[in-house]
Amino acid sequence: MATSPMPAARLPARNVFNEPIIPCSFQPLTGFFRDGCCKTGDDDVGTHVVCAVMTDEFLEFSVARGNDLVTPVPEWGFPGLRAGDKWCLCALRWVEAWQAGMAPPVVLESTNFHALDVISLSVLQAHASQGDSGEQ
């Protein structure tokens, strides 16, 4: 009897170093699946795979681009973000911010390997958060 493949959300997530992913944040609770990790699956059209440390500059940039991450939305369980919070960002939103010179720092061990589909490892390493050298 053949077994069906495990759904993507249930597969062990890997980071950009192809190691088990480390949770991004439980406070605030992040991730497409709201499990603290930057996992992705077929339903995640935004590909929320980049664990980023919020900065005031990035949050202002995001609001200006129509993605308000600051204002709480209680009915969605979203507390609103502030500088210093870690959050699983959409890969293309991070690229957009990077191209505008506004990319927030990245926690490499918590960034899903699927980020490498659109962002090179060298670019991510150049934006590693302090204390996250990315050296493996």
Tell me about this structure.
Helix content is about 20%, strand content about 10%. It is an alpha+beta fold. The relative contact order is 0.22.
What's the gist of this structure?
This protein is of the alpha+beta class and 136 residues long. 18% of the residues lie in helices and 8% in strands.
Write the layout of secondary structure elements.
Layout: E1 48-53, H1 56-64, E2 86-90, H2 91-99, H3 121-126
Antiparallel strand pairs: 1-2
Descriptive keywords:
two-stranded antiparallel ribbon, single chain, alpha+beta, 136 residues, 2 strands, 3 helices
Tally of alpha and pi helices = 3
Characterize the overall form.
Answer: globular
Strand order of the largest sheet: 1-2
The Rg value, from CA coordinates, equals 15 Å
Secondary-structure class: alpha+beta
Distance between the termini: 40 Å
Largest sheet: 2 strands, antiparallel
Topology, number of strands: 2
* Uncertain parts: 1-9
Please provide the ordered H/E string of secondary-structure elements.
EHEHH
Q: Let me know the average pLDDT.
A: 89
Proportion of residues in helical segments: 10-25%
Could you tell me the strand content as a percent range? 5-15%
